[in-house]
Amino acid sequence: MPDSTVATNRRAYHDYFVEDKLEAGLALAGSEVKSVRAHHVSLQEAYVEIREGEAWVVGMRISPYQVGAGQPALPADRSRKLLLRRREIAQLDRRVRQKGYTLIPLRIYFSASGYAKLEVGLCRGKRHYDKREAIKERDDRRRTDRALAERSHAAGRVRQENRSGV
Fold first, then answer.
1. pTM of the entire structure?
2. Helices (H), 16-127
3. d(Cα 45, Cα 28) in Å, to the nearest integer?
């Protein structure tokens, strides 16, 4: 089955160290599922909050589904319940209470069975110098990949010239 990722929160990997990942179901209304399937969802300002023994995703924006007249539109940025086991919620709550940890939605996708899932990351914030270091590593990796590709391309040209007798 092809990758069924609907939206990713790329900013989370820039601003946080993702230490652990967890898959959670989403409690959505029917029109929200249709909007998510149409990729009308944003995770940019979202985070997960644990209140009264339940996990809620706050700030995830799902635009109202426009096609057809039916039920009244739900607010786009309402809190949505995450479907997790009590034991998982308790464990996450303990870990989040540690200083510097937060729960951030990383991506939303559809499972093989067709259910909307949210990948939640247990994250620790990056300092400014950590971000600069990550950018430097990414640039170095790009530079070496580009040099290797250029070198292999040049070697292929030399081999082709040798075959043609030029």
1. 0.71
2. 30-37, 86-96
3. 19
